[in-house]
Amino acid sequence: MRRTLRSVIAVALGMATAILATPGTASAAPTTVGYDVSYPQCRSSLPRDRAFAVVGVNGGLSTKANPCLASQLSWAWGSSGSVPAQPKAQLYLNTANPGEIRGAVTTWPRSGSTPYGTCDGDNSTACSWQYGWERAENSLDAFFTPAAAEARVDSSPSRYTWWLDVETTNTWQSGSPDGLARNRATLEGMTEYLASRGGEVGIYSTAQQWTKVVGSVSTSSTLAGRSTWLAGATSLAGARSNCSRPPLVPDGRVVLAQYVVSGLDRNYSCL
Question: Cβ-count burial of 20 within 10 angstroms (0-12 exposed, 13-18 middle, 19+ buried)?
Fold first, then answer.
């Protein structure tokens, strides 16, 4: 946060007030705090002082758009960038896999060629991968691109880090080995689509939720080597401590740690 010490000198005979910086006083260091926001903050006043910001593209579900995405993108690009290791504006996507209730949704794929074979509309690893690909494609092309144009900010996917938000509150397949494999495939499909557009992809979750939704990740998975953004801390000290925890995927590293204060998500850079 920048703060300038000011001396106000009233000058007689109607002269304007002069504001003089106190000689020899250095400005306070800019904040290193980052924030993440999405549709719940649409009617909230967002922090004026922020080093970087992560904006949710979706409105709680991967099939919905954040209704104030454009204004929040504009706000994110206004970050100071005082943490060189963190891009000023970053993004996150909601994730899910409704394969076990595919009859209740309209977005489950009916076809597609994938690394796991051909999707035929069944609850398979192939269709799970295709579902992830299509959800990432829709989030980028239908939600992000027009919002970026409206906000008049960079719309190139390669200019952003794209975090996959993995939480147990979303719809996932059951924790059987096959269910976990299909959940992993969905995230792999999302990752491969975003990477094909030049985006940098990372994973947001807690260790407990990640294990419950995804299980273990092999070094051959496209999820391996991705950066981790760890949630779960309630203080800056807790976030700093989380930086030393194991990453969510093999060959990855923890680069961000989230902590919540007064209902607002703050983020500490581990780099």
Answer: exposed
> Is residue 11 one of the residues assigned to a domain?
no
Which parts of the chain are beta strand (E)?
A: 6-9, 18-21, 34-37, 52-56, 89-94, 112-114, 117-119, 161-165, 200-205, 227-233, 254-261, 264-269
Q: Is 233 exposed, middle or buried (0-12, 13-18, 19+ CB in 10 A)?
A: buried
- Length in residues, the chain: 271
Token pair, residue 224, equals: 């391996």
Number of H helices, E strands in the chain: 6, 12
Write the Ramachandran bin of 60: left for phi over 0, alpha for psi from -120 to 50, otherwise beta.
left
- Tokens 């989030």: give the residue: 139
In this prediction, residue 29 carries a pLDDT of 76
Would residue 10 count as lying in a domain? no
Q: Considering only CA atoms, which of 69, 79, 165, 185 is closest in space to residue 123? A: 185
Angle between helices 177-196 and 125-138 (to 10 degrees): 40
Which residue in the block uniquely carries the two structure tokens 């899910």?
96
Tens-place pLDDT, residues 74-120: 999 999 999 999 999 999 999 999 999 999 999 999 999 999 999 99
* Alpha-carbon gap, residue 14 to 104, rounded angstroms: 74
pLDDT of residue 61: 95
Query: Does residue 80 lie in a domain region?
Result: yes
Give pTM, 2 decimals.
0.89
CATH number assigned to the domain comprising residue 37: 3.20.20.80
Which amino acid belongs to residue 16?
A
